[in-house]
């Protein structure tokens, strides 16, 4: 199954990066370990969004609603029940996928922009529940100091846990991306009308894609709790949805790992620019404008294009 | 095989198709002709489910398919190409046909087995058949217009249709490309046993390959008959051929 899609050429650098990430925590300061782990979590969230936006062509405007549902489900199971942690870990993504099914069921019936608007409104409902229901969710305070088993209590341990789950998820997302379902989804992005004419039930494929993407967003939500040991309504707020949409755009939505890169850049900027100025969103805005004008395919998309051009030139020179 | 009976469709009070009738028998090549705005494309859209008729019946293999969604009509065995190139821009030529083939074999929900190993031979056969195999790995939006029109047809063939509907298959093609395409259509009908329903402005093409011709004017079907009968029909001459043919 794997031999067909993972080339040895790309396999070596990937394993290399993975090993470097494995040996990093003991040698770098704690703060950087934390930032990298945050990049992983945000990156997974952006990757899950890109499944529907970049590969599926849907206007998924409120993706972090599913992220928040995953995080809150996990947090509530850990704090309000006596169930073991793994139940919460499984329940978080499943709850997110289920909410994805509910919201998606309505959204896929609408065309592009209306799809996005409906999703913002339905997602905001969930935010309102988390924001107002003090007795359950802690309202605008959220839930803090969520108890973790000793295995995940230290930062380095949660870093490794997040890294491994991320790796598994990325392999899963990649397999789906390269599967007949992934190809069909890209065909729907390019031309839904034609897809219907070749016998594809477009709505059903879109719905399944939303559920899968919500599931992975739920995984990211759970990982966030593992890292931060807290949840708060901002996780569900539409501003965050916009931010991850920008990450996908920044990295390049038609590439596979682009959103990961976009998330890493955004998290790094927010952290390091945030030290010097409170107006870091202003800088994000400027970057977005420059991006639209100069790198419409995103950072990774730009480099892939350059790389291809060089390859073609080299081939022509050889001839 | 296909019978269209008294089908009507209006858009905001404008009657695009008004009482159109059409009969397609297995193995035939039927052409639909008529001036611009006669309702040819609308009629095709009604047959393949992109539009729902207001009244009338569309019978395909003894089943009324009026108002059935396009993907189900396609699964029943009607494939179509579009007048304006309508392909998957960011996918390669190979993937364009492959998607249709995957859909035909009901494999589009496979999540964990790579696309690379699916329906390879079937897709190759179709590309060989239409002469696009040397461009298989190109991104489809980079093809020339003529090649895109051919790809358009190849995608429709990916569903292994029994009835193939072609909406102006040679529109915008150069004369050489047109003659190659005509040969191809002829060959496909005999090789694959296809029934073809098409519309076209190129009268030479229509009269050279159609077994029967249906003439439409202002949404109405005037006549459906053999080419010489259509040529000699006075009503057609007045309405469409300008009395000069």
Task: Explain the layout of strands and helices.
The complex is a heterodimer of chains A (319) and B (245).
Chain A: H1 8-27, H2 30-53, H3 64-80, H4 85-107, H5 112-132, H6 134-137, H7 155-177, H8 180-190, H9 192-197, H10 202-228, H11 238-251, H12 258-276, H13 280-294, H14 298-318
Helix pairs in contact in A: 1-7, 2-7, 2-10, 2-11, 2-12, 3-4, 3-5, 3-10, 4-5, 4-10, 7-10, 8-10, 11-12, 11-14, 12-13
Chain B: E1 2-11, E2 14-24, E3 29-33, H1 40-47, E4 55-60, E5 63-64, H2 70-76, E6 78-81, H3 93-104, H4 120-130, H5 145-157, E7 163-167, H6 175-192, E8 195-199, H7 203-209, E9 212-217, E10 220-225, H8 227-232, H9 234-239
Parallel strand pairs in B: 3-8, 3-9, 6-7, 7-8
Antiparallel strand pairs in B: 1-2, 1-4, 4-5, 9-10
Helix pairs in contact in B: 3-4, 3-5
Verbal overview:
The complex is a heterodimer of chains A (319) and B (245). Chain A is mainly alpha-helical and 319 residues long. Chain A has one domain (8-240). Chain A contains 14 helices and no strands. Chain A has helices spanning 8-27, 30-53, 64-80, 85-107, 112-132, 134-137, 155-177, 180-190, 192-197, 202-228, 238-251, 258-276, 280-294, 298-318. In chain A, helix 2 (30-53) runs parallel beside helix 7 and helix 7 (155-177) runs antiparallel to helix 10. The longest helix of chain A is centred in the C-terminal third of the chain and has 27 residues, at 202-228. Chain A starts with 7 loop residues before the first helix and ends with a helix. Chain B starts with a strand and ends in a 6-residue tail after the last helix. Chain B contains 9 helices and 10 strands. Chain B has helices at residues 40-47, 70-76, 93-104, 120-130, 145-157, 175-192, 203-209, 227-232, 234-239, and strands spanning 2-11, 14-24, 29-33, 55-60, 63-64, 78-81, 163-167, 195-199, 212-217, 220-225. Chain B folds into 2 domains: 1-77 and 161-245, Rossmann fold; 88-160, no CATH class. Chain B has 245 residues and is α/β, with parallel strands linked by helices.
């Amino acid at each position: 199954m794997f031999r067909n899609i993972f080339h040895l050429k790309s396999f070596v650098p990937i394993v290399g990066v993975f090993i470097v990430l494995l040996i990093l925590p003991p040698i770098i300061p704690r703060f950087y370990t934390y930032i990298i782990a945050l990049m992983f979590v945000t990156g997974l969230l952006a990757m899950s969004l890109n499944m529907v936006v970049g590969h599926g062509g849907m206007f998924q405007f409120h993706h972090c609603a599913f992220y928040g549902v995953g995080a809150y489900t996990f947090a509530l199971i850990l704090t309000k029940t006596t169930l073991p942690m793994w139940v919460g870990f499984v329940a978080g993504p499943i709850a997110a996928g289920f909410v994805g099914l509910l919201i998606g069921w309505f959204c896929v019936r609408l065309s592009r922009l209306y799809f996005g608007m409906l999703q913002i409104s339905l997602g905001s409902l969930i935010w309102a529940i988390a924001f107002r229901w003090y007795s359950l969710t802690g309202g605008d305070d959220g839930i803090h100091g969520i108890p973790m088993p000793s295995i995940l209590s230290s930062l380095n341990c949660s870093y490794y846990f997040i890294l491994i789950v991320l790796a598994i998820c990325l392999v899963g997302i990649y397999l789906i991306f390269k599967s007949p379902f992934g190809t069909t989804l890209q065909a729907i992005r390019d031309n839904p009308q034609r897809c219907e004419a070749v016998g594809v039930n477009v709505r059903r494929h879109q719905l399944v894609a939303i559920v899968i993407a919500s599931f992975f967003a739920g995984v990211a939500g759970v990982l966030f709790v593992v890292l931060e040991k807290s949840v708060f309504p901002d996780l569900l707020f539409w501003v965050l949805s916009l931010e991850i949409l920008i990450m996908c755009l920044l990295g390049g939505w038609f590439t596979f790992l682009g959103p990961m890169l976009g998330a890493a850049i955004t998290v790094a900027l927010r952290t390091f620019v945030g030290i010097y100025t409170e107006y870091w969103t202003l800088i994000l805005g400027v970057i977005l404008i420059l991006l639209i004008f100069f790198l419409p395919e995103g950072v990774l998309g730009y480099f892939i294009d350059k790389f291809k051009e060089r390859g073609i030139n080299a081939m022509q020179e050889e001839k | 095989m296909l019978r269209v009976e008294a089908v009507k469709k209006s858009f905001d009070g404008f009657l695009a198709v008004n009482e159109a009738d059409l009969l397609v028998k297995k193995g035939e090549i039927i052409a639909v002709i008529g001036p611009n705005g006669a309702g040819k494309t609308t009629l095709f859209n009604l047959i393949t489910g992109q539009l729902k008729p207001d009244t009338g019946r569309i019978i395909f293999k003894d089943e009324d398919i009026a108002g059935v969604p396009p993907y189900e009509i396609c699964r029943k065995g009607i494939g179509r190409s579009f007048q304006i190139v309508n392909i998957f821009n960011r996918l390669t030529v190979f993937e364009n046909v492959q998607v249709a083939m995957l859909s035909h074999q009901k494999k589009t929900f496979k999540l964990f087995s790579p696309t690379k190993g699916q329906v390879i031979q079937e897709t190759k056969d179709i590309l060989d058949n239409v002469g696009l195999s040397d461009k298989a790995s190109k991104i489809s939006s980079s093809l020339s217009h003529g090649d895109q029109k051919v790809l358009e047809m190849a995608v429709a063939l990916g569903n292994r249709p029994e009835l193939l509907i072609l909406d102006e298959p040679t529109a915008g093609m150069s004369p050489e490309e047109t003659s190659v395409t005509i040969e191809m259509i002829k060959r496909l009908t005999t090789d694959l046993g296809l029934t073809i329903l098409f519309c076209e402005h190129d009268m030479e093409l229509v009269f050279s390959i159609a077994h029967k011709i249906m003439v439409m004017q202002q949404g109405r079907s005037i006549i459906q008959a053999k080419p010489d009968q259509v040529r000699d029909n006075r009503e057609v001459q007045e309405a469409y051929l300008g009395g000069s043919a």
